[in-house]
Amino acid sequence: MAERVFELMPATRRGRLVESVTIDLDTTDVEVYGRKKRGVEYNHQGQRVGRPHVATWAEMETCLAAELFSGNDDARASAPDMFLRALSALPRGVRRGRVRLRADTGYFDGKLARVAFL
Q1: What percent of the chain lies above the pLDDT cut of 70?
Q2: Rounded CA gap, 54 and 45, in Å?
């Protein structure tokens, strides 16, 4: 889908997007209420939460890959896979250029660093 949207853009806009490609990994807790909700757990603050984990193309403000975790899941374990899925979702022309990774310090992990420097 990102490829089709990219193709429909004016050439000048596509050129600017290719110059600076940043994949941003982020997660946040979304508090929910009710005991029967599936896929949620208590986080470290005692809230019942789901934890969306997304990889976005920052300059285009487009989600490239996403998962939903429960509140006690650690997103670091799947961060390398999420980054690779996001890379594969980029349009072909964009993948040839330089792609940067932006992730919060909570993602600091050797596996993610190794995948990002390939």
Answers
A1: 97
A2: 22
Query: In this structure, what are the phi and psi dihedrals at residue 106, rounded to the nearest 5 degrees?
Result: -65, -20
Within 8 A by CB and 6+ apart from 65, the residues are: 54, 55, 82, 85, 86, 89
Helices (H), 1-118: 2-8, 11-19, 79-89, 92-95, 110-116
- Token readout for 2 is 């990102």
At residue 64, what is the residue type? Answer: L
Full-model pTM: 0.81
Report the DSSP beta bridge partners of residue 26.
Answer: 54
Beta-carbon count within 10 A of 36 CB: 4
Q: Residue 82 class from Cβ within 10 Å (0-12 exposed, 13-18 middle, 19+ buried)?
A: buried
E strand or H helix at 69: strand 62-70
